[in-house]
Amino acid sequence: MTLQRIKPVTEQPRVTQFFDEFAPSYFSRYDIRDQDGHSFRIRKQRVLEEFKKLPAGSTVLDVGCGPGVMVRELLDAGYRVIATDIALAMIEECRKQFPRNDRLELIVAPAEHLPLPAASVDGIMAMGLVEYLKDDAEVLREFARILKPQGLIAITLPHEASPSRLWDRLTKWLARPLVLLVRGLRGKVPTDVLHREYRLNEYHALCETSGIHLTHTVFYNMKVFLRPLDRLFPAAGVRCSESLERFARTPFLRRLGTGFIVFGKKK
Predict the structure, then answer these.
(1) pLDDT-derived band of residue 202, with 50, 70 and 90 as boundaries?
(2) Residue ranges of the alpha helices (H) in 98-212?
(3) Is 199 inside any structural domain?
(4) Which terminus of the chain has a smaller tally of CB atoms within 10 A, N or C?
(5) In the chain, how many domains are there?
(6) Edge-to-edge strands of the sheet including 80-85?
(7) Chain center to CA of 260
């Protein structure tokens, strides 16, 4: 099963270039008081809440680690951390943040082909990663290969059916002719990095056939200020989302989440 209904992903070299260019400023996105910043912060918080249940000394693999957003908390919790990314600039930023630590290993490698032994890690986290990859099943099989039996896994995904993403797709479709016209007049070539969006039931089935049993799901970034309101009133939008995060597990309100996190175990 492939999940490319909404749009295909950008070719990998362009994705790598994008994240190489983004590396120096990536950390700052977590501090900005807008909807994107809130989404990054609450996503990080929810994943760490689960991973800190692992016993000290566990080996945690952070795939698509970026500049090391999760690394400090994982090291502070007593874990051995393997951080991988396909973007060399991201790994170099991570190296600057943590220049000397014998419990941290940094690797430049694609998520689909990681140079790690089978059944070698206790936990795998993949945040903001799989939506940029071409083959969901291939990377899930690789995760299942590396993970120890009953090892913990967390994967974050854009929620296709959230009102915010539905609205964004509609407005982009309506505005596309004008955008293309303006770009053509300016002589600019579109350089957007495309990614997939997901439905929980589809991804659940894909995980089960790839050797991963999902245990629970958490939705996050409960967004009600749609564009352009989120840009006009960023602080108010964040306050509203923060107050709604407590309802992220309720069947109806969780649909507001622009993303969801699947947690599971290796079969």
Answers:
(1) very high
(2) 136-146, 163-186, 200-209
(3) yes
(4) N
(5) 1
(6) 104-108, 80-85, 59-63, 121-126, 147-158, 257-266, 212-222
(7) 9
